[in-house]
Amino acid sequence: MLGIEDVVIIGAGPAGLAAALQLRRYAIAPRLFERGRPGGLLWNAYWVENYFGFAGGISGPKLARAFDAQAASASVRVTEEDVVELTWKDGFFRATTPAGVYKARTAVIASGTKPRTLTDFPIPDACHERVVYEIVPLLSLAGKRMIIVGAGDAAFDYALNLSKENDVIIINRGEQVKCLPLLWERASTCPHITYRPRTAISRLAATGAGGLTVECSSPGGTAVLQADYLIGAIGRDPQLDFVSASLLEQSSELENRGILHFVGDVKNGMYRQTAIAVGDGIRAGMRIYQVLKESTDESDCLDR
Question: In this structure, how many other beta carbons lie within 10 angstroms of the beta carbon of residue 77?
Fold first, then answer.
């Protein structure tokens, strides 16, 4: 057991960082866990245009770096460990990582989302390294061909990001485009992006050169496409795999007591926006301060 924390926060995306920063304003030092890089899905984002304070917008990675720098300037500590289980027992939360178990009086779950995987066709073992769901590892590549599966904001945002240095094909098994009109307009005018509706992958195979052969059904019959990478962008689900079943059963009660908070994309469904996530985090930090202060005041009264 690695001591008792006032607050543990799982996830250093916009919501988790905002919660930690708000708590630091109250002189509370939360234990913030992040297994990757602080900033969350902003690292995948091409352009953020609805976050106030940035006229004309700002790139996702640049905004992520700004959030991380602000948190660091407030002495927010990021523990680079993966929380594999979060439980509630004997009045404490227990966050288990490969390094040990951290106990805490309050917990903030800001773990974001996980991608829905491509399941409509088999993915051979030889292709697994070329089938991805996050584009950060691909942003340094140039002169490649990428195929993106999806028709929503993420698919078109990824396409715009990758098309700066590569050729991109977006395939949609349906006909309806589900992204923002602005994204569709930009993608439609980009010479490096091709959109193929009513196209569904039926077979995937590795090529001898390390690429992929993607066989699809399409309005014109079978289409065989070549690509270096296949990217799934067909939706995301809350990342709650590490939360114990017993804790989930008690979550409503613990939330009502103000000692458990779900913030950001992990709870916001279709309302997954950076500004909303930041607001969630700030609100959680304020509520936790009230709860901890009330607990301290109560203890002081009992000691008199």
Answer: 12
Give residues with Cβ within 8 angstroms of 187, minimum separation 6: 156, 159, 160, 170, 179, 193, 195
- On the 0-12 / 13-18 / 19+ scale of CB atoms within 10 A, 4 is exposed
Encode pLDDT of 170-212 as tens digits. Answer: 999 999 999 999 999 999 999 999 999 999 999 999 998 889 9
pTM of the model: 0.91
25 Cβ contact list (under 8 Å, min separation 6): 74, 285
- For residues 19 and 30, what is the distance between their CA atoms, to the nearest angstrom? 9
Q: CA 193 to CA 159: how far, in whole Å?
A: 7
Q: Which CATH superfamily is domain 4-114+236-303 in?
A: FAD/NAD(P)-binding domain (3.50.50.60)
Query: pLDDT, tens digit, for every residue of 16-29?
Result: 999 999 999 999 99
Q: What is the pLDDT of residues 70-125, one digit of tens each?
A: 999 999 989 999 999 999 999 999 999 999 999 999 999 999 999 999 999 999 99
User: Is pLDDT at 3 greater than 80 in this prediction?
Assistant: no
CB proximity list for 82: less than 8 A, separation 6 or greater? 33, 35, 97, 98
Question: Please, what is the angle between helix 153-162 and helix 181-188, to 10°?
Answer: 30
* Number of Cβ within a 10 Å radius of residue 63: 22
Structure-block tokens of residue 113:
């989302």
Residue 22: which of 273, 287, 276 has the closest Cα?
287
Query: Which token pair is 59?
Result: 């790139």
Which residues does 53 contact at the CB level (< 8 Å), separation at least 6?
Answer: none
User: Which homologous superfamily is 117-232 in?
Assistant: FAD/NAD(P)-binding domain (3.50.50.60)
Distance, in Å, from the CA atom of 9 to the CA atom of 86, rounded to the nearest integer, reads 11
Quick one: CA dihedral 123, 229, 273, 6, positive or negative? positive
